[in-house]
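At this stage, I wrote out one protein's amino acid sequence and its C-alpha cells, and that material follows here:
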Amino acid sequence: MFTLMESENKFPDSLSETAAFKGLGEAERAQIYNYGERRIHKPEAVLFREGEPALRLYLVVEGGLKLTKLHEEGKETVVRYIRPGDFTAAAAVFSEKKYPATAKAVSSTEVVSWDQPAMWRILNDYPRFTVNLLQVAVERLDEIQNRLLELQVEKVEQRLARALLRLMEQSGKRTDEGILINFRLTRQELADYTGTTLYTVSRTLSGWEKKGWISSGREKIVVTDPHALVAFSEAGS
C-alpha cells in the first residue's frame, strides 16, 4: 500500500513557495516537515476512509489525492482533488471528529502526515505557520462557496469548463499538445465532480474536441485552448 521513508528528510524545494510555508525560514520549514511521517502511496491506495476516526492530517508533496463521499444509495461522488502543497483533514483532526470523506491516491503519491499532538506543538511553536494555515482554510471555504454557487446558478457546460480550468491550475503539466490534467480522470469522475451526468460530460467534451479546445483519451484530458475555456466559462456570468 505504501512505503515508509526515513524520519529525517530534506524539505522539498517544490513546497517552499506554497501557501502553508510562505514566510518561513529554511530551518523552520525543515523542522515542521520532520515532525511528520513521510510515506509514498501507490495509485488507488486509500489513505483514510469516510467515517473513520480522524487521527492524522496530510500534506501532499508529489502526486495527488481524490476525496470522495458516499451517498445514502451507495453512489460515490468526487468532492475535491488535493494537489501538491495542499493539506487535507485538518479540520477533522483538530475537532477530533471522523473523516468526512475518503482519500485515495490518483497516482504514485508522496505525503507527509502529522497526528494531533504534533500539530498542536507546531502551531504553538511556529505562529507564522498557524497564520498561513488559517489563510488556507479561509481560501478553502471560499472555494466551497464558489462551487456551491456554480451548482445553483450556472449552466452545466459552464460548470464543466470551470472544473477543467480549476483542475488544470491545480495539477496541469505542459506538453506538446497543451496542458495535461496530470492524473487519471474518467468522464464519470468528472461528471460526479461537476454534479451532472456521464452523457452530458461526454457530449460536451466531444463538442469541445471538435472546436480544438481540448483533446482526450482513456482517462486523460489535455486542455489545448485554455483561453477559449475561460471565455466560455465567463460568458453570461
